[in-house]
Amino acid sequence: MSALSKDANDSGLAAKDPAKRRRALLIVAAIFLLAALAWFLLWRFVFSTRESTDNAYVGGNQVALSSQVPGTVVAILTDDTQHVVAGQVLVKLDATDADVRLRQTSSALAQSVRQVRQQNDSVNEADATVASREVDLRKAAADLKRHLPLVAAQAESPETVQHMRDSLAQAQAAVDAAKARAQSARATVEGTDIANNPAVMQARANFRAAWIAAQRNTIVAPVSGYVAQRSVQLGASISPGQQLMTIVPLHDLWIDANFKENQLRHIRIGQPVKIAADLYGGGVEYHGKVIGLGAGTGSVFSLLPAQNATGNWIKVVQRVPVRIALDNGELDQHPLRIGLSTDVTVDISNEQGPALASVSTQAPAQTSVYDQVAAQADAQAEKIIRANLGE
Fold first, then answer.
1. Is residue 243 over pLDDT 90?
2. How far apart are CA 372 and CA 378, in angstroms?
3. In this structure, is residue 151 part of a structural domain?
4. Residues 147 and 206 occupy one common structural domain
5. Which of 213, 241, 275 is the last residue of a domain?
6. What sections of the chain are H helices per DSSP?
7. Helix, strand, coil percentages in the chain from 3-state DSSP, rounded to 5
8. 102 and 200 share a domain?
9. 205 and 312 share a domain?
10. Tell me: the pLDDT tens digits for 264-283?
């Protein structure tokens, strides 16, 4: 028998050996069990503790800059991609008409102050007239009193006494008329000083409005950020509310991650999030946290909402936006732009947080760049009033 035939006989004997066959099956079964255990452990401690999506984009505020007054553009001091700070002058309008209106209201305010001063002087003059007429009244009464005994003694004619009575009545009427004129003059200035007189306050309000309108011909940035979508051009005639450009702050950004509806079961507010931006190719990892879940799916708020009550309905898995706050320190090191794509992984191991926000934790968005305009208008009005008080 040849060597090749001997090896074939030995293999056939081994294949027919039940012990070796069971050993081989046990090894294969053990391998499958270990693989299943490894997959279970991987799912239990890794995949089941996170939800991921690549349908996530960077969001941010887009502050539309517009004019509050009509005018013609005479200067543009910035352009797209440039950084501006809050209060920086960006656009100037022709201020000719506003300056004329400001001069008119300034002179009207000064004139109103002088008129109220004149009214105060008229009150003093009317009070002096009342005092003079009261002196005449007392003199007429004294003359009549002296002559009445002479009539009884027939030393004075009745006609003379009657003339004195008429003079007394005329003096009383003159006193009453003087008091009425004094009261009429006092009604325009009584109870207030010159600065708080209604006429002065009205003229002051008109001046304040003209001052503010003149200042609004200089359009400033309400917030700090980067200029985008500049549409304003030199010489353009613009109207109030017309958008001139957009300012995008790149500091307080967020992520809108659109998770499928079956992924929202374990997502809660406050859960930590890891974000990778396509801009940096996965080499930079951002850390954020869930700050809120959308109130509806994207299809509900779309321009043309889906009509699911139709006969040809096809079920489509919906997505709900989940807002994720970013760390400003990480944004300073690795800036992002709004609209960029990201990959988001939410750690759902802790489900103690709420699914819906109970109170607002967002800091209020506000700007103070316009507060100084009103204060400056008041200061200028006070200056005009003091200059015309004659003190």
1. yes
2. 10
3. yes
4. yes
5. 213
6. 3-15, 18-45, 96-152, 158-187, 198-215, 328-333, 371-387
7. 45, 20, 35
8. yes
9. no
10. 988 999 999 999 999 988 78
What amino acid is encoded at 365 in this protein? A
- Write out pLDDT tens, residues 82-122: 999 999 999 999 999 999 999 999 999 999 888 877 777 77
CB atoms within 10 A of CB 261: 11
- Residue count of the chain, please give it: 391
Least confident of 171-185, 250-264, 295-309: 171-185
> Rounded to an integer, what distance in angstroms lies between the CA atom of residue 283 and that of residue 70?
49
The CATH number of whichever domain residue 165 belongs to comes to: 1.20.58
Residue with tokens 């600065």: 195
Q: Cα(53)–Cα(276) distance, rounded to whole angstroms? A: 11
Judgement on whether residues 104 and 191 belong to the same structural domain of the protein? yes
The count of domains in the chain is 2
Residue with tokens 């002051």: 204
Range of the structural domain that residue 113 is part of: 97-213
Assess if residue 331 is contained within a domain: yes
Cα separation, 382 vs 380, in Å, equals 5
Q: Which residues contact 197 (CB under 8 A, 6 or more apart)?
A: 112, 116, 188, 189
Cα–Cα distance, 127 to 210 (Å, whole number) = 38
Buried b vs exposed e over 60-75: b needs ≥16 C-beta within 10 Å?
Answer: bbebebebebebbbee
Are 227 and 65 in contact by the 8 Å Cβ rule? The answer is no
| CATH label of the domain that carries residue 320 | 2.40.30
Cα angle vertex 80, ends 75, 82, to 5°? 90
96, two tokens: 């000719």
Residue 47's CB: how many other CB atoms inside 10 A? 11
Closest CA to 214 of 77, 79, 104: 104
